[in-house]
Amino acid sequence: MRSNQYWALARTLGTLAVAALISACASVDSRNETSGGYAEPIGVVLPDEPTTPDLTAAAKPSGDAADPSNLKDNAAATVAGLTPEQYPDLLDRMRAGFQFADVNNRAVEQQLAYYANNPAYLERTFGRAELYIHHIVQELEARGMPLELALLPVVESAFEPYAMSGARAYGLWQFIPGTGQRFGLNQNWWYEGRRDVIASTRAALDYLQYMHDEFFDDWLLAIAGYNCGEGCVQRAVKNNRAAGKPVDFWHLKLPAETRAYVPKLLAMARLVRDPELYGIAFSSIPNEPYFARVDTGGQVDMKVAAELAGITPEELYELNPGFHRFATPPAGPHYLLVPRDAADALRQGLAQLTPDERLAVVLHTVKPGESVASVAAHYKTQVTVVRDLNGIGNGPLVVGSILRVPSGVATLPAKVMRAAARVDGPASRGRGTRRPVVHVVRRGDSLWRIARRNGTDVRTLARLNGIGPGSTLRAGQKLIVNSRGTTAPSSTPASARKNLPATQSSSREVTYSVRKGDSLWGIARMFNVAVSDLVGWNGISSRTKLMPGQRLTVQVKRR
Fold first, then answer.
1. Is 123 a catalytic residue?
2. Which neighbouring-strand residues pair with 301?
3. Is residue 409 very low, low, confident or very high in pLDDT (cuts 50, 70, 90)?
4. Which of 109, 156, 160, 230 is catalytic?
5. What is the dihedral of CA 348, 353, 355, 358, to 10 degrees?
6. pLDDT (tens digit per residue) in 36-68
7. Residue 11 burial by CB count (10 A; 0-12/13-18/19+): exposed, middle or buried?
8. What is the DSSP track for 116-139?
Protein backbone atom coordinates (compact mmCIF):
# COMPACT_ATOMS: atom_id res chain seq x y z
CA MET A 1 0.00 0.00 0.00
CA ARG A 2 2.77 2.38 0.88
CA SER A 3 4.51 1.52 -2.36
CA ASN A 4 1.41 2.32 -4.41
CA GLN A 5 0.94 5.61 -2.54
CA TYR A 6 4.58 6.47 -3.09
CA TRP A 7 4.43 5.91 -6.85
CA ALA A 8 1.12 7.79 -7.09
CA LEU A 9 2.70 10.73 -5.30
CA ALA A 10 5.77 10.55 -7.53
CA ARG A 11 3.64 10.53 -10.67
CA THR A 12 1.67 13.55 -9.39
CA LEU A 13 4.87 15.49 -8.62
CA GLY A 14 6.30 14.56 -11.99
CA THR A 15 3.19 15.79 -13.76
CA LEU A 16 3.33 19.08 -11.84
CA ALA A 17 7.02 19.53 -12.69
CA VAL A 18 6.40 18.96 -16.38
CA ALA A 19 3.50 21.40 -16.33
CA ALA A 20 5.65 23.99 -14.59
CA LEU A 21 8.43 23.46 -17.11
CA ILE A 22 6.02 23.90 -20.04
CA SER A 23 4.57 27.00 -18.43
CA ALA A 24 8.05 28.46 -17.88
CA CYS A 25 9.03 27.77 -21.49
CA ALA A 26 5.86 29.44 -22.73
CA SER A 27 6.60 32.41 -20.49
CA VAL A 28 10.12 32.73 -21.89
CA ASP A 29 8.84 32.45 -25.46
CA SER A 30 6.24 35.10 -24.79
CA ARG A 31 8.84 37.44 -23.30
CA ASN A 32 11.14 36.89 -26.24
CA GLU A 33 8.38 37.76 -28.71
CA THR A 34 7.48 41.00 -26.97
CA SER A 35 10.87 42.24 -25.84
CA GLY A 36 13.29 40.66 -28.24
CA GLY A 37 15.02 38.74 -25.43
CA TYR A 38 16.61 36.07 -27.62
CA ALA A 39 19.65 34.30 -26.25
CA GLU A 40 21.37 34.49 -29.62
CA PRO A 41 19.86 37.45 -31.50
CA ILE A 42 20.13 37.31 -35.26
CA GLY A 43 21.82 40.13 -37.13
CA VAL A 44 23.10 41.94 -34.01
CA VAL A 45 26.71 43.08 -33.88
CA LEU A 46 27.80 42.69 -30.30
CA PRO A 47 30.36 44.89 -28.54
CA ASP A 48 33.89 43.66 -27.99
CA GLU A 49 34.67 41.82 -24.83
CA PRO A 50 35.68 44.39 -22.19
CA THR A 51 39.09 44.33 -20.62
CA THR A 52 37.36 43.97 -17.26
CA PRO A 53 36.34 40.63 -15.69
CA ASP A 54 33.10 38.96 -16.80
CA LEU A 55 30.82 39.84 -13.92
CA THR A 56 27.98 37.70 -15.22
CA ALA A 57 29.88 34.56 -14.23
CA ALA A 58 31.81 35.78 -11.21
CA ALA A 59 29.35 38.01 -9.36
CA LYS A 60 26.02 36.20 -9.66
CA PRO A 61 25.05 34.09 -6.65
CA SER A 62 23.70 30.59 -7.12
CA GLY A 63 20.03 29.71 -6.97
CA ASP A 64 16.98 31.66 -8.05
CA ALA A 65 18.59 35.03 -7.33
CA ALA A 66 20.99 34.43 -10.18
CA ASP A 67 18.15 34.38 -12.72
CA PRO A 68 17.85 37.90 -14.22
CA SER A 69 14.14 37.33 -14.78
CA ASN A 70 13.68 37.40 -11.01
CA LEU A 71 15.49 40.71 -10.47
CA LYS A 72 12.44 42.89 -11.02
CA ASP A 73 10.29 40.85 -8.64
CA ASN A 74 13.02 40.68 -6.00
CA ALA A 75 13.55 44.46 -6.02
CA ALA A 76 9.85 45.26 -5.98
CA ALA A 77 9.16 42.80 -3.14
CA THR A 78 11.47 44.68 -0.77
CA VAL A 79 9.45 47.88 -1.05
CA ALA A 80 5.94 46.58 -1.76
CA GLY A 81 2.94 48.48 -0.48
CA LEU A 82 4.38 52.00 -0.58
CA THR A 83 3.05 54.91 -2.59
CA PRO A 84 5.62 56.65 -4.81
CA GLU A 85 6.05 59.50 -2.29
CA GLN A 86 6.66 57.12 0.63
CA TYR A 87 9.93 55.65 -0.60
CA PRO A 88 12.85 57.16 1.34
CA ASP A 89 15.22 56.56 -1.60
CA LEU A 90 14.32 57.75 -5.10
CA LEU A 91 16.11 54.74 -6.59
CA ASP A 92 13.71 52.41 -4.72
CA ARG A 93 10.80 54.41 -6.11
CA MET A 94 12.24 53.94 -9.59
CA ARG A 95 12.77 50.20 -9.13
CA ALA A 96 9.12 49.77 -8.21
CA GLY A 97 8.17 51.53 -11.43
CA PHE A 98 10.41 49.54 -13.76
CA GLN A 99 8.36 47.89 -16.51
CA PHE A 100 10.82 46.34 -18.95
CA ALA A 101 11.19 42.58 -19.03
CA ASP A 102 14.77 41.60 -18.33
CA VAL A 103 16.65 40.39 -21.40
CA ASN A 104 19.22 37.59 -21.49
CA ASN A 105 21.46 39.05 -24.14
CA ARG A 106 25.20 39.16 -24.53
CA ALA A 107 25.20 42.80 -25.65
CA VAL A 108 23.47 43.80 -22.41
CA GLU A 109 25.90 41.72 -20.35
CA GLN A 110 28.88 43.40 -21.99
CA GLN A 111 27.55 46.90 -21.31
CA LEU A 112 26.70 45.87 -17.76
CA ALA A 113 30.24 44.64 -17.15
CA TYR A 114 31.65 47.94 -18.40
CA TYR A 115 29.40 50.07 -16.18
CA ALA A 116 29.97 47.88 -13.14
CA ASN A 117 33.73 48.20 -13.53
CA ASN A 118 33.64 52.01 -13.74
CA PRO A 119 32.15 53.05 -10.39
CA ALA A 120 33.83 56.48 -10.50
CA TYR A 121 31.98 57.28 -13.71
CA LEU A 122 28.69 56.18 -12.14
CA GLU A 123 29.40 58.26 -9.04
CA ARG A 124 29.97 61.42 -11.10
CA THR A 125 26.94 60.78 -13.28
CA PHE A 126 24.47 60.06 -10.48
CA GLY A 127 25.91 62.93 -8.46
CA ARG A 128 24.81 65.27 -11.26
CA ALA A 129 21.52 63.37 -11.62
CA GLU A 130 20.43 64.28 -8.08
CA LEU A 131 19.49 67.76 -9.27
CA TYR A 132 17.15 66.66 -12.06
CA ILE A 133 16.07 63.02 -11.79
CA HIS A 134 13.23 63.46 -9.28
CA HIS A 135 11.48 65.80 -11.72
CA ILE A 136 11.96 63.28 -14.54
CA VAL A 137 10.55 60.43 -12.42
CA GLN A 138 7.49 62.49 -11.52
CA GLU A 139 6.83 63.32 -15.16
CA LEU A 140 7.16 59.69 -16.20
CA GLU A 141 4.80 58.53 -13.45
CA ALA A 142 2.22 61.13 -14.42
CA ARG A 143 2.22 59.69 -17.95
CA GLY A 144 2.31 56.03 -16.89
CA MET A 145 5.62 55.52 -18.69
CA PRO A 146 8.36 53.06 -17.60
CA LEU A 147 10.69 54.54 -15.01
CA GLU A 148 13.67 52.95 -16.74
CA LEU A 149 13.41 55.93 -19.10
CA ALA A 150 14.60 58.18 -16.27
CA LEU A 151 18.01 56.58 -16.86
CA LEU A 152 18.14 57.58 -20.53
CA PRO A 153 20.07 60.80 -19.73
CA VAL A 154 22.79 58.56 -18.25
CA VAL A 155 23.34 57.14 -21.72
CA GLU A 156 22.67 60.40 -23.57
CA SER A 157 24.60 63.00 -21.59
CA ALA A 158 25.80 61.47 -18.31
CA PHE A 159 23.32 63.98 -16.80
CA GLU A 160 25.49 66.92 -17.89
CA PRO A 161 23.05 69.68 -18.99
CA TYR A 162 25.76 71.52 -20.93
CA ALA A 163 26.75 68.44 -22.92
CA MET A 164 27.00 68.93 -26.69
CA SER A 165 27.53 66.27 -29.36
CA GLY A 166 29.33 66.54 -32.67
CA ALA A 167 25.88 66.75 -34.31
CA ARG A 168 25.14 69.81 -32.13
CA ALA A 169 22.76 67.90 -29.90
CA TYR A 170 22.35 69.71 -26.57
CA GLY A 171 21.28 69.09 -23.02
CA LEU A 172 20.32 66.21 -20.77
CA TRP A 173 18.24 64.64 -23.54
CA GLN A 174 20.54 65.57 -26.46
CA PHE A 175 18.11 67.11 -28.92
CA ILE A 176 19.46 68.14 -32.31
CA PRO A 177 18.21 71.54 -33.58
CA GLY A 178 15.53 70.23 -35.95
CA THR A 179 13.99 67.74 -33.53
CA GLY A 180 14.11 70.35 -30.77
CA GLN A 181 12.13 72.80 -32.91
CA ARG A 182 9.69 70.05 -33.88
CA PHE A 183 8.87 69.49 -30.21
CA GLY A 184 8.62 73.15 -29.26
CA LEU A 185 12.10 73.86 -27.89
CA ASN A 186 12.93 77.46 -28.80
CA GLN A 187 16.52 78.32 -29.68
CA ASN A 188 17.67 81.95 -29.86
CA TRP A 189 20.37 84.35 -28.73
CA TRP A 190 19.04 84.48 -25.19
CA TYR A 191 17.72 80.99 -24.64
CA GLU A 192 18.34 77.35 -25.58
CA GLY A 193 15.27 75.24 -24.90
CA ARG A 194 17.16 72.02 -25.56
CA ARG A 195 19.08 72.65 -22.34
CA ASP A 196 16.05 73.79 -20.32
CA VAL A 197 15.49 71.00 -17.78
CA ILE A 198 11.69 71.27 -17.67
CA ALA A 199 11.09 72.02 -21.36
CA SER A 200 13.50 69.39 -22.69
CA THR A 201 12.13 66.68 -20.37
CA ARG A 202 8.61 67.40 -21.59
CA ALA A 203 9.81 67.26 -25.20
CA ALA A 204 11.79 64.04 -24.70
CA LEU A 205 8.85 62.22 -23.13
CA ASP A 206 6.55 63.49 -25.87
CA TYR A 207 8.95 62.14 -28.48
CA LEU A 208 9.38 58.76 -26.76
CA GLN A 209 5.64 58.32 -26.30
CA TYR A 210 5.04 59.24 -29.94
CA MET A 211 7.48 56.57 -31.11
CA HIS A 212 6.11 54.00 -28.67
CA ASP A 213 2.69 54.49 -30.21
CA GLU A 214 4.15 54.52 -33.72
CA PHE A 215 6.11 51.28 -33.25
CA PHE A 216 3.26 49.05 -32.01
CA ASP A 217 3.84 49.75 -28.30
CA ASP A 218 7.43 48.47 -28.33
CA TRP A 219 9.55 50.53 -25.96
CA LEU A 220 12.85 49.12 -27.26
CA LEU A 221 12.00 50.33 -30.77
CA ALA A 222 11.00 53.72 -29.33
CA ILE A 223 14.36 53.97 -27.57
CA ALA A 224 16.18 52.93 -30.73
CA GLY A 225 14.26 55.60 -32.65
CA TYR A 226 15.29 58.18 -30.06
CA ASN A 227 18.90 57.44 -30.95
CA CYS A 228 18.80 57.14 -34.72
CA GLY A 229 15.45 58.76 -35.59
CA GLU A 230 12.07 57.21 -36.24
CA GLY A 231 12.71 57.19 -39.99
CA CYS A 232 15.70 54.92 -39.50
CA VAL A 233 13.65 52.43 -37.47
CA GLN A 234 10.72 52.62 -39.89
CA ARG A 235 12.97 51.69 -42.80
CA ALA A 236 14.49 48.78 -40.87
CA VAL A 237 11.03 47.48 -39.91
CA LYS A 238 9.83 47.79 -43.52
CA ASN A 239 12.87 45.88 -44.81
CA ASN A 240 12.43 43.07 -42.29
CA ARG A 241 8.74 42.71 -43.05
CA ALA A 242 9.48 42.52 -46.76
CA ALA A 243 12.03 39.76 -46.06
CA GLY A 244 9.69 37.87 -43.73
CA LYS A 245 11.91 38.51 -40.68
CA PRO A 246 10.89 39.50 -37.13
CA VAL A 247 10.59 43.23 -36.48
CA ASP A 248 11.73 43.39 -32.85
CA PHE A 249 14.78 45.46 -31.97
CA TRP A 250 17.19 42.52 -31.85
CA HIS A 251 16.46 41.50 -35.46
CA LEU A 252 16.51 44.92 -37.13
CA LYS A 253 19.51 46.12 -39.12
CA LEU A 254 20.29 49.38 -37.35
CA PRO A 255 23.39 51.59 -37.06
CA ALA A 256 26.14 50.23 -34.80
CA GLU A 257 25.68 53.08 -32.33
CA THR A 258 21.97 52.24 -31.99
CA ARG A 259 22.66 48.52 -31.59
CA ALA A 260 24.84 49.43 -28.61
CA TYR A 261 22.54 52.22 -27.36
CA VAL A 262 19.54 50.12 -26.33
CA PRO A 263 21.69 47.52 -24.49
CA LYS A 264 23.35 50.39 -22.60
CA LEU A 265 20.00 51.49 -21.20
CA LEU A 266 18.93 47.92 -20.40
CA ALA A 267 22.25 47.32 -18.66
CA MET A 268 21.95 50.50 -16.63
CA ALA A 269 18.42 49.55 -15.59
CA ARG A 270 19.57 46.10 -14.47
CA LEU A 271 22.45 47.62 -12.52
CA VAL A 272 20.14 50.07 -10.74
CA ARG A 273 17.60 47.31 -10.14
CA ASP A 274 20.06 45.12 -8.22
CA PRO A 275 23.44 46.87 -7.73
CA GLU A 276 24.64 44.55 -4.95
CA LEU A 277 24.53 41.64 -7.35
CA TYR A 278 27.31 43.34 -9.30
CA GLY A 279 29.32 44.74 -6.41
CA ILE A 280 28.06 48.31 -6.84
CA ALA A 281 26.62 50.60 -4.16
CA PHE A 282 24.63 53.65 -5.29
CA SER A 283 24.45 56.56 -2.89
CA SER A 284 20.91 57.22 -1.71
CA ILE A 285 19.04 59.95 -3.60
CA PRO A 286 16.39 61.68 -1.44
CA ASN A 287 12.90 61.02 -2.72
CA GLU A 288 11.94 64.68 -2.81
CA PRO A 289 12.18 67.50 -5.35
CA TYR A 290 15.56 69.19 -5.46
CA PHE A 291 14.33 72.40 -7.06
CA ALA A 292 11.26 74.62 -7.12
CA ARG A 293 10.03 76.73 -10.00
CA VAL A 294 9.73 80.46 -9.33
CA ASP A 295 7.83 82.85 -11.60
CA THR A 296 10.07 85.87 -12.24
CA GLY A 297 7.34 88.10 -13.68
CA GLY A 298 9.66 89.30 -16.44
CA GLN A 299 13.32 89.68 -17.31
CA VAL A 300 15.79 89.61 -14.44
CA ASP A 301 19.56 89.70 -14.09
CA MET A 302 20.86 86.22 -13.25
CA LYS A 303 23.40 87.57 -10.77
CA VAL A 304 20.70 89.57 -9.00
CA ALA A 305 18.46 86.49 -8.85
CA ALA A 306 21.27 84.38 -7.42
CA GLU A 307 21.92 86.96 -4.70
CA LEU A 308 18.23 87.10 -3.80
CA ALA A 309 18.05 83.30 -3.60
CA GLY A 310 21.21 83.08 -1.50
CA ILE A 311 23.02 80.80 -3.96
CA THR A 312 25.98 81.25 -6.29
CA PRO A 313 25.54 82.15 -9.98
CA GLU A 314 27.11 78.78 -10.82
CA GLU A 315 24.35 76.98 -8.89
CA LEU A 316 21.66 79.06 -10.59
CA TYR A 317 22.98 78.37 -14.10
CA GLU A 318 23.33 74.65 -13.32
CA LEU A 319 19.60 74.48 -12.68
CA ASN A 320 18.79 76.86 -15.53
CA PRO A 321 21.16 75.84 -18.34
CA GLY A 322 18.67 77.07 -20.94
CA PHE A 323 19.69 80.65 -20.06
CA HIS A 324 23.18 81.37 -21.36
CA ARG A 325 23.33 85.16 -20.98
CA PHE A 326 23.65 87.59 -18.12
CA ALA A 327 19.85 87.82 -17.77
CA THR A 328 16.73 85.82 -18.53
CA PRO A 329 15.21 86.51 -21.97
CA PRO A 330 13.05 89.64 -22.37
CA ALA A 331 10.34 87.56 -24.07
CA GLY A 332 10.57 84.64 -21.63
CA PRO A 333 10.50 82.00 -20.35
CA HIS A 334 9.85 83.96 -17.19
CA TYR A 335 10.74 81.41 -14.55
CA LEU A 336 13.81 80.19 -12.70
CA LEU A 337 14.56 76.90 -10.98
CA VAL A 338 16.22 77.22 -7.58
CA PRO A 339 16.82 74.81 -4.69
CA ARG A 340 13.56 74.36 -2.79
CA ASP A 341 14.80 76.04 0.36
CA ALA A 342 15.79 79.13 -1.67
CA ALA A 343 12.46 79.60 -3.48
CA ASP A 344 10.68 81.77 -0.90
CA ALA A 345 13.64 84.13 -0.58
CA LEU A 346 13.74 84.59 -4.36
CA ARG A 347 9.98 85.22 -4.60
CA GLN A 348 10.07 87.79 -1.81
CA GLY A 349 13.15 89.49 -3.21
CA LEU A 350 11.74 89.74 -6.74
CA ALA A 351 8.54 91.32 -5.40
CA GLN A 352 10.54 94.17 -3.87
CA LEU A 353 12.77 95.01 -6.86
CA THR A 354 12.31 98.16 -8.90
CA PRO A 355 12.54 97.82 -12.72
CA ASP A 356 16.07 99.23 -12.71
CA GLU A 357 17.10 96.86 -9.92
CA ARG A 358 15.84 93.85 -11.87
CA LEU A 359 18.25 94.63 -14.67
CA ALA A 360 21.01 97.18 -14.10
CA VAL A 361 20.90 99.61 -17.02
CA VAL A 362 22.08 103.06 -18.00
CA LEU A 363 20.15 105.50 -20.16
CA HIS A 364 21.86 106.51 -23.39
CA THR A 365 20.76 109.47 -25.51
CA VAL A 366 21.21 108.77 -29.23
CA LYS A 367 23.55 111.20 -30.96
CA PRO A 368 23.90 111.96 -34.68
CA GLY A 369 25.71 109.20 -36.59
CA GLU A 370 25.07 106.54 -33.97
CA SER A 371 23.59 103.16 -34.73
CA VAL A 372 22.49 100.22 -32.63
CA ALA A 373 25.79 98.54 -33.47
CA SER A 374 27.89 101.49 -32.33
CA VAL A 375 25.91 101.86 -29.10
CA ALA A 376 26.26 98.14 -28.41
CA ALA A 377 29.99 98.29 -29.09
CA HIS A 378 30.42 101.29 -26.80
CA TYR A 379 28.77 99.49 -23.89
CA LYS A 380 30.45 96.16 -24.68
CA THR A 381 27.19 94.36 -25.29
CA GLN A 382 25.34 92.86 -28.24
CA VAL A 383 23.08 94.39 -30.90
CA THR A 384 20.42 91.86 -29.95
CA VAL A 385 20.51 93.01 -26.33
CA VAL A 386 20.00 96.68 -27.22
CA ARG A 387 17.18 95.90 -29.61
CA ASP A 388 15.42 93.53 -27.21
CA LEU A 389 15.72 95.81 -24.19
CA ASN A 390 14.22 98.70 -26.13
CA GLY A 391 11.78 96.87 -28.37
CA ILE A 392 13.19 98.36 -31.56
CA GLY A 393 13.44 96.80 -35.00
CA ASN A 394 16.08 96.99 -37.71
CA GLY A 395 15.53 100.60 -38.68
CA PRO A 396 17.85 103.54 -37.90
CA LEU A 397 17.88 105.18 -34.49
CA VAL A 398 16.15 108.49 -33.87
CA VAL A 399 18.53 111.22 -32.74
CA GLY A 400 17.66 112.31 -29.21
CA SER A 401 15.81 109.10 -28.28
CA ILE A 402 16.67 107.30 -25.04
CA LEU A 403 18.03 103.75 -25.07
CA ARG A 404 18.30 101.38 -22.12
CA VAL A 405 21.60 99.49 -22.23
CA PRO A 406 23.20 97.16 -19.69
CA SER A 407 25.42 99.00 -17.26
CA GLY A 408 27.85 96.12 -17.04
CA VAL A 409 27.84 92.43 -17.88
CA ALA A 410 29.18 90.13 -15.18
CA THR A 411 31.60 87.35 -16.06
CA LEU A 412 29.66 84.17 -16.64
CA PRO A 413 30.65 80.67 -15.48
CA ALA A 414 32.94 78.94 -17.97
CA LYS A 415 30.34 76.43 -19.20
CA VAL A 416 27.84 79.22 -19.76
CA MET A 417 30.34 81.29 -21.73
CA ARG A 418 31.13 78.34 -23.96
CA ALA A 419 27.41 77.80 -24.54
CA ALA A 420 26.97 81.46 -25.46
CA ALA A 421 30.00 81.34 -27.76
CA ARG A 422 28.38 78.56 -29.79
CA VAL A 423 25.49 80.89 -30.50
CA ASP A 424 27.62 83.95 -31.21
CA GLY A 425 29.67 82.18 -33.87
CA PRO A 426 33.35 81.68 -34.65
CA ALA A 427 34.38 85.29 -34.07
CA SER A 428 33.37 85.20 -30.41
CA ARG A 429 35.10 81.85 -29.89
CA GLY A 430 38.48 83.30 -30.71
CA ARG A 431 38.86 81.52 -34.06
CA GLY A 432 39.65 84.73 -35.87
CA THR A 433 37.53 87.65 -36.96
CA ARG A 434 35.50 88.02 -40.09
CA ARG A 435 37.19 89.48 -43.13
CA PRO A 436 36.59 93.26 -43.22
CA VAL A 437 34.02 94.64 -45.62
CA VAL A 438 35.51 97.08 -48.10
CA HIS A 439 33.40 99.95 -49.44
CA VAL A 440 34.35 101.78 -52.64
CA VAL A 441 33.48 105.46 -52.23
CA ARG A 442 31.00 106.83 -54.76
CA ARG A 443 30.40 110.43 -55.76
CA GLY A 444 28.40 112.16 -53.03
CA ASP A 445 29.36 109.68 -50.29
CA SER A 446 30.29 110.96 -46.83
CA LEU A 447 31.63 109.22 -43.75
CA TRP A 448 28.29 109.75 -42.04
CA ARG A 449 26.30 108.12 -44.88
CA ILE A 450 28.69 105.17 -45.17
CA ALA A 451 28.73 104.66 -41.40
CA ARG A 452 24.93 104.72 -41.18
CA ARG A 453 24.57 102.35 -44.15
CA ASN A 454 26.90 99.82 -42.52
CA GLY A 455 25.62 100.00 -38.96
CA THR A 456 28.52 101.80 -37.37
CA ASP A 457 29.45 105.38 -36.39
CA VAL A 458 31.70 108.03 -37.93
CA ARG A 459 34.41 107.84 -35.27
CA THR A 460 34.76 104.06 -35.60
CA LEU A 461 34.82 104.26 -39.39
CA ALA A 462 37.48 106.99 -39.33
CA ARG A 463 39.62 105.06 -36.83
CA LEU A 464 39.47 101.89 -38.93
CA ASN A 465 40.82 103.79 -41.93
CA GLY A 466 43.34 106.06 -40.18
CA ILE A 467 41.58 109.29 -41.16
CA GLY A 468 39.85 112.08 -39.27
CA PRO A 469 36.08 112.24 -38.72
CA GLY A 470 35.93 115.36 -40.90
CA SER A 471 38.08 114.04 -43.76
CA THR A 472 36.90 114.61 -47.32
CA LEU A 473 36.41 111.47 -49.37
CA ARG A 474 37.18 110.98 -53.04
CA ALA A 475 35.40 108.77 -55.53
CA GLY A 476 37.06 105.36 -55.89
CA GLN A 477 38.65 105.51 -52.43
CA LYS A 478 38.42 102.21 -50.55
CA LEU A 479 37.27 102.17 -46.93
CA ILE A 480 37.15 99.32 -44.44
CA VAL A 481 33.73 99.23 -42.81
CA ASN A 482 31.91 97.07 -40.25
CA SER A 483 29.10 94.97 -41.66
CA ARG A 484 25.65 95.53 -40.18
CA GLY A 485 25.25 93.92 -36.79
CA THR A 486 28.98 93.70 -36.00
CA THR A 487 29.75 94.19 -32.34
CA ALA A 488 32.83 94.66 -30.28
CA PRO A 489 34.95 91.56 -29.79
CA SER A 490 33.61 89.39 -27.01
CA SER A 491 35.57 88.82 -23.83
CA THR A 492 34.57 85.17 -23.91
CA PRO A 493 37.67 83.54 -25.40
CA ALA A 494 40.24 84.65 -22.82
CA SER A 495 37.95 83.89 -19.91
CA ALA A 496 36.76 80.61 -21.30
CA ARG A 497 40.26 79.38 -22.12
CA LYS A 498 41.17 79.53 -18.46
CA ASN A 499 38.38 77.06 -17.74
CA LEU A 500 38.88 74.59 -20.56
CA PRO A 501 39.78 70.97 -19.69
CA ALA A 502 42.76 70.67 -17.40
CA THR A 503 46.33 70.96 -18.56
CA GLN A 504 49.03 68.40 -17.90
CA SER A 505 49.77 69.91 -14.49
CA SER A 506 46.18 69.52 -13.25
CA SER A 507 45.19 66.34 -15.05
CA ARG A 508 46.20 62.75 -15.41
CA GLU A 509 46.55 60.87 -18.65
CA VAL A 510 44.50 57.72 -19.19
CA THR A 511 44.28 55.37 -22.13
CA TYR A 512 40.87 54.24 -23.34
CA SER A 513 40.31 51.17 -25.53
CA VAL A 514 37.55 51.74 -28.08
CA ARG A 515 34.59 49.32 -28.05
CA LYS A 516 32.09 48.60 -30.79
CA GLY A 517 29.38 51.23 -30.88
CA ASP A 518 31.62 53.90 -29.35
CA SER A 519 31.72 57.38 -30.83
CA LEU A 520 34.01 60.33 -30.15
CA TRP A 521 31.08 62.13 -28.56
CA GLY A 522 30.22 59.20 -26.31
CA ILE A 523 33.81 58.84 -25.12
CA ALA A 524 34.16 62.60 -24.55
CA ARG A 525 30.95 62.60 -22.55
CA MET A 526 32.10 59.62 -20.50
CA PHE A 527 35.23 61.46 -19.37
CA ASN A 528 33.54 64.89 -19.19
CA VAL A 529 35.82 66.47 -21.80
CA ALA A 530 35.19 68.24 -25.09
CA VAL A 531 35.26 66.36 -28.39
CA SER A 532 37.66 68.98 -29.76
CA ASP A 533 40.11 68.22 -26.95
CA LEU A 534 39.80 64.48 -27.53
CA VAL A 535 40.55 65.03 -31.20
CA GLY A 536 43.54 67.25 -30.42
CA TRP A 537 45.07 64.89 -27.87
CA ASN A 538 45.02 62.03 -30.35
CA GLY A 539 45.89 63.86 -33.57
CA ILE A 540 42.75 62.69 -35.35
CA SER A 541 39.84 64.31 -37.17
CA SER A 542 36.38 64.76 -35.67
CA ARG A 543 35.18 62.58 -38.56
CA THR A 544 37.60 59.76 -37.83
CA LYS A 545 35.89 56.37 -37.77
CA LEU A 546 36.83 54.64 -34.55
CA MET A 547 37.85 50.98 -34.66
CA PRO A 548 37.34 48.47 -31.83
CA GLY A 549 40.58 48.06 -29.92
CA GLN A 550 41.89 51.48 -30.98
CA ARG A 551 43.52 53.27 -28.05
CA LEU A 552 42.79 56.91 -27.28
CA THR A 553 44.61 59.21 -24.89
CA VAL A 554 42.40 61.25 -22.55
CA GLN A 555 43.46 63.98 -20.12
CA VAL A 556 41.20 63.58 -17.07
CA LYS A 557 40.92 66.28 -14.43
CA ARG A 558 42.39 65.39 -11.08
CA ARG A 559 39.75 65.37 -8.36
1. no
2. 327
3. low
4. 156
5. -80
6. 322 222 222 223 333 333 333 333 333 333 333
7. exposed
8. HT-HHHHHHHHHHHTTTHHHHHHH
